[in-house]
Design goal:
two-stranded antiparallel sheet, 5-stranded antiparallel β-sheet
């Protein structure tokens, strides 16, 4: 059968065939992802992720001077430290003997064996400080370390993605950047700074696009499962769409105008009455659209700056006072309510 001189086609079948062609072409061009075995992050010291606020609170609890060194803890001495007993790490009694300022470590002696060992502050809990606070301190440092190692591992993975898969920064964007830096205003000896900046901009753009590509691929359950073995930060799961936000479209969904009518009837932002109401609300808002929290205008001589600090502060104070006065006078709930009702004719 023919329709206006053309053979009738199987639309769903044609779409599936075209999709298969593109999928096959993509699979041939798609570069394999970097091997996960190479994502080895150098060991990072746990003390680098310590929060100094814990130390301040611990010193207060131990009645130590708020400002002082780690050697102050030696006056208390008795403590516990993590000790491997052959099966697991357990907190075992010890005594702090010495503090090494250069290495940032305490020399401790185990009460049970008499052996000595150098440990960091995160591996010794003094009897005069709250144990729960120290455990929370260690747990936070470990969580920060894991997060940073995962981020570093992800950066290493993204860096290894093939460059061919990413389009470089377009020349028109580079030209737009250069238009904001007239060559006549740049000293000759400083032109190399522009070249360096452009190199960094191109590299940053490539890295950002590769990162976005990797994060998008993580939405695929198969890829997410493969990357889980490397502890790469995964894309956060999308929130579930509530049932009352779903739009019921007619089946089969091949009639464009019928589907468009269904969207217009059920989607709030596409509903004609809602659209008209929003446009009228914009009319209420329009008189206030030009108001600013910060005045970035010119000075009395018409110059954009530089400003004297006192003059700048006074200008911003005056801008804020004028803004508050205007909103108090006109942006009131009762005024807005009556204005909106008159616009939407409720």
């Amino acid at each position: 059968p023919t329709v206006t001189g053309l053979s009738a086609i199987d639309l769903p079948g044609s779409i599936e065939a075209v999709h298969g062609v593109f999928s096959e072409a993509f699979s041939e061009q798609h570069q394999p992802r970097p091997p996960l075995e190479k994502l080895v992050v150098p060991s990072l010291p746990l003390s680098a992720f310590d929060d100094p606020e814990f130390e301040r609170v611990a010193r207060m609890a131990a009645r130590l001077p708020e400002v002082g060194g780690m050697a102050d803890w030696l006056q208390h001495g008795t403590a516990v430290s993590r000790f491997y007993d052959g099966a697991e790490l357990v907190l075992t009694a010890c005594t702090a003997m010495e503090w090494d300022e250069v290495g940032g470590r305490f020399l401790i002696q185990w009460d049970r064996t008499g052996n000595t060992k150098w440990v960091t502050r995160l591996n010794i809990c003094f009897d005069c400080e709250p144990t729960e606070l120290w455990e929370q301190r260690v747990a936070m440092a470990e969580a920060r370390k894991r997060a940073k190692e995962d981020e570093t591992r992800l950066a290493m993975y993204v860096e290894q993605v093939e460059q061919q898969e990413v389009c470089p920064l377009a020349d028109k964007h580079v030209a737009h950047i250069l238009r904001g830096m007239p060559a006549a205003e740049v000293e000759t000896e400083h032109l190399h700074v522009i070249d360096t900046g452009l190199v960094e901009a191109r590299a940053g753009y490539m890295a950002a696009v590769k990162y976005a590509t990797v994060k998008y691929e993580q939405l695929d359950p198969t890829e997410a499962s493969r990357l889980a073995a490397a502890n790469l930060p995964l894309q956060p799961a999308a929130p579930a769409v509530p049932d009352d936000a779903l739009i019921g479209l007619p089946e089969p969904r091949v009639d464009f105008f019928q589907a468009l009518d269904a969207i217009a009837a059920t989607l709030p932002t596409a509903h004609p009455d809602v659209n008209r109401t929003l446009q009228r609300l914009m009319m209420v808002y329009q008189p206030f659209a030009h108001l600013r929290f910060v005045d970035l205008g010119t000075d009395e001589e018409g110059s954009p700056g530089p400003w004297e600090l006192d003059a700048w502060v006074e200008r911003q104070k005056r801008c804020g006072q004028e803004l508050v006065a205007r909103l108090k006078a006109e942006w009131r709930g009762d005024t807005l309510h009556s204005s909106i009702l008159s616009l939407i004719h409720i």
